[in-house]
Write a structure and sequence with these properties.
Blueprint (H helix, E strand, L loop, with lengths): L1 E2 L1 E4 L2 E9 L14 H29 L2 H15 L1 H14 L3 H17 L4 H22 L13 E5 L4 H6 L5 E6 L7 H8 L3 E4 L4 H4 L5 E5 L4 E4 L3 H22 L15 E6 L5 H6 L5 E5 L13 H14 L4 E5 L26 H7 L1 H14 L4 E6 L5 H20 L9 E6 L2 H5 L1 H4 L5 E4 L1 H9 L17 H16 L3 E4 L10 H7 L3 E4 L4 H8 L4 H12 L4 H12 L2
Parallel strand pairs: 3-4, 4-5, 5-6, 9-10, 9-16, 10-11, 11-12, 12-13, 13-14, 14-15, 15-16
Antiparallel strand pairs: 1-8, 2-6, 3-7, 7-8
Helix pairs in contact: 1-2, 1-3, 1-5, 2-5, 3-4, 4-5, 11-13, 12-13, 13-14, 19-21
Length: 569
């Protein structure tokens, strides 16, 4: 049995698909049979073309024309006679192996495109890399797993899953995720909850212990994985799966009901999403709004920035889809672990503390303006709230608000409609912002606390580092005091305070946050109904007393134990 961190609930039984994280090892070899090497190259090119054509058709049907264009560009690379024929010539002239020849030609083309003045041409270098690496894998016999075109239902087993992996995979065929690394707040964990796919992270050796095609059974709550279980164990897991489905049915009865404590305090239960397609999950789980729309997914897995029109259509879809409920849309939060192939960024010692989010947007103002124009244009279609990420000072906040005013003035001059009712707020995820939240509250309509980063920055701990993961703890008294301070400072200025970090949906944290006076809880869609069940069963006044008792305790372990004891968890 393997034991990891339960990231998304659910009981899964299914066949494993192991995604190998292998680097391509290419060596120069002298060959005698040039014809065989050329045939190997041409065969790999043809197989790659077939794969890309399928992916393109699928992208066109499911994602739309723009996404399909990415794969069309990839096909054009393969059809460029210059690329393939240059590799053929190299094989024949230098008597070298097909993979070495193609790799040399790839490096030459990439270097040539990257040195061009034209930005569009520079970006083609990434397409060439992608496509030729696909061909190289076929030549070398390295398995190419196309997550967008899965033949059967599988459990994905990987060292980690990237944002583009989860954005492009065929979600109907994925039963669950198992990864070597990560914690409850890693990208894979968050996405698994958003997509309502059971997942376990932080398994350390899943990719070594589990073989391709192994039958696995796992529990997304407990973090337990059984490889090739016996019949008795399979029967136990099937029973657990049935029980879990029954529990989900009981939660269904809470749909359409308000989220109100026994003594009448109403709080808003919203959901976190990454794409307009995620709205279905929110509606299904009876969300009262969107507390965090991560717009960076619009920018991923493509070869250029999304246009104003594309962004407008995406934001409009969410605003209309939620039918007048409030929608908090976060401006671009790129940097840290989220990179764009078409946005070259310098290597940084500490990218999480570096050039990212609002810092990048204020520096690359043209990117920011395009997004804000799309947001304000979309605001006429619903109840929009704009939120800035990673604000660490009043100066940054005022600069960001100034750009909003400039954009509104532009739209007015162009006679383009926008709503005057748009609320503007910011995330509190940097300790410096929490400490001056009394000052910041005077300049915003709301705060939303991003606990994922707030914990990491307050405790000086990398949330992806397994060795020190024990220090990454939402029950740390310092973190809880900062959260309480932020909520209090918002209320003093008559502003509301929400939370869009993963703590908002945690059953052990909800009673504490409720007692602190949190107004809005935003979480993964699957956490909404369990949260409503809990909030509807407790008294706000009692939770206030409970949270005061919590703040008198000295360690995270004491606090967690006290919550568990109080709520029999």
């Amino acid at each position: 049995m393997l034991k990891g961190i339960g990231a998304s609930p659910g009981i899964v039984l299914g066949k494993a698909l192991v995604i190998e994280d292998t680097e391509l090892v290419i060596e120069r070899k002298a060959i005698t049979d040039c014809e065989a090497e050329v045939a190997k190259l041409r065969s790999a090119v043809e197989v790659s073309k077939e794969e890309l054509t399928k992916v393109k058709e699928k992208a066109l049907a499911e994602l739309g024309e723009h996404e399909a264009e990415i794969f069309e560009a990839h096909l054009l690379v393969l059809e460029d006679p210059e690329l393939v024929e240059s590799a053929v010539s190299k094989i024949n002239d230098e008597k070298v192996n097909a993979d070495f020849a193609l790799n040399e030609i790839k490096e030459m083309f990439v270097a040539m495109f990257e040195s061009m003045d034209n930005e569009y041409m520079r970006e083609r270098a990434a397409d060439i890399k992608d496509v030729t690496n696909r061909v190289l894998r076929h030549i070398l016999g390295v398995k190419v797993v196309d997550l967008a075109d899965l033949a059967e239902e599988v459990v994905l087993v990987a060292h980690d899953l990237t944002p583009s992996d989860t954005a492009t995979m065929d979600k109907k065929k994925v039963l669950g995720f198992l990864t070597d690394i990560g914690g409850r707040t890693s990208h894979t964990a968050i996405m698994s909850r958003t997509l309502e796919i059971a997942a376990i992270v932080g398994l350390s050796d899943a990719t070594k212990e589990i073989k391709d095609g192994d039958f696995v059974a796992f529990n997304g709550d407990t973090g337990e994985v059984i490889i090739n279980p016996d019949e008795e164990t399979i029967a136990t897991y099937r029973k657990l799966k049935t029980d879990f489905e029954e529990y989900k049915k009981a939660l269904e009865l809470l749909k359409g009901k308000a989220t109100v404590t026994t003594d009448g305090r109403h709080v808003e239960l919203a959901g976190n999403i990454g794409t307009p397609g995620d709205v279905d999950g929110l509606i299904k789980n009876d969300a009262e709004g969107v507390g965090l729309y991560r717009t960076e997914f619009l920018y991923m897995d493509r070869s250029d920035f999304p246009s104003e029109e594309e962004q407008y259509n995406a934001y409009k879809a969410v605003l209309e889809g939620m039918a007048g409920k409030p929608i908090v849309i976060r401006t671009l939060d790129i940097g840290g672990d989220k990179k764009l192939d078409y946005l070259p960024m310098d290597e940084e010692m500490n990218p999480f503390l570096g050039y990212r989010a609002i810092r990048l947007c204020l520096d690359r103002k043209e990117i920011f303006v395009t997004q804000l124009r799309a947001l304000y244009r979309a605001s006429v279609h619903g109840k929009l709230r704009i939120m800035f990420p990673m604000i660490s000072s009043l100066e940054e906040l005022l600069q960001a608000k100034e750009v909003c005013e400039e954009v509104k003035a532009q739209l007015k001059a162009e006679n383009i409609a926008y709503s005057d009712e748009v609320e503007v707020g910011m995330m509190i995820e940097v300790p410096s912002a929490a400490v001056i939240s009394d000052v910041l509250a005077k300049h915003v309509d709301f705060f939303s606390i991003g606990t994922n980063d707030l914990i990491q920055y307050t405790c000086a701990v990398d949330r992806m580092n397994q060795k020190i993961s024990y220090l990454y703890n939402q029950f740390n008294p310092a973190v809880l005091r900062l959260i309480k301070m932020v909520i209090d400072n918002a209320h003093k200025e008559g502003k509301w305070a929400g939370m869009c970090g993963e703590s908002a949906g945690d059953q052990l944290m909800i009673p504490i946050l409720l007692g602190f006076g949190l107004d809005e809880f935003s979480m993964s869609p699957i956490s909404i109904l369990p949260a409503r069940k809990l909030i509807n069963s407790v008294s706000f006044e009692e939770m206030k007393k409970f949270s005061e008792e919590i703040l008198s305790l000295g360690t995270a372990e004491e606090i967690k134990a006290y919550v568990k004891k109080t709520f029999n968890k």
